[in-house]
């Protein structure tokens, strides 16, 4: 069971489903919203249990981003046409037991850092 929360604790979430797609996103939207890059994994939406009033932002024609309206923590990413939901690995309480699988949207990464961990990289 993975459990997580926002910074102030107003939003809590948990899942018993095995997370997939453990990634670091370097896209411009994730960098602007998180202040850096965003680490996440996804599970079927029906398997992620959320408590609290998440505020959703329609960040594009294809997806929305969920955050805490009190502290601003960026917690979720949801494509409109998928039945999965991504959650922030940085918001997990305690160890995740997961291993990074890929870096995504590396063509958009900031010029102030290098990716040198040997993990596969993708421009999408």
Automatic annotation (TrEMBL):
User: Where's the CENP-V/GFA domain?
Assistant: 2-114
Question: Does the keyword Zinc feature in the UniProt annotation?
Answer: yes
- Name of this protein: Aldehyde-activating protein
Q: Which family does it belong to?
A: Belongs to the Gfa family.
Q: Which InterPro entries match?
A: CENP-V/GFA, Mss4-like_sf
Ordered alphabetically, the record's keywords are: Lyase, Metal-binding, Zinc
Tell whether Metal-binding is among the UniProt keywords: yes
């Amino acid at each position: 069971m993975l459990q997580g929360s926002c910074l102030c604790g107003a939003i809590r979430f948990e899942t018993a489903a095995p997370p997939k797609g453990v990634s670091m996103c370097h896209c411009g939207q994730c960098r602007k919203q998180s202040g850096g890059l965003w680490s996440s994994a996804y599970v079927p939406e029906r398997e992620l249990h959320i408590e609290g009033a998440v505020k959703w932002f329609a960040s594009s024609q294809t997806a929305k981003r969920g955050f805490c309206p009190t502290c601003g923590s960026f917690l979720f990413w949801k494509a409109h046409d998928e039945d999965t939901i991504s959650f922030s690995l940085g918001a997990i309480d305690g160890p995740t037991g997961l291993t990074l699988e890929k870096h995504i949207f590396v063509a958009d990464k900031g010029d102030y850092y290098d990716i040198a961990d040997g993990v596969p990289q993708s421009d999408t």
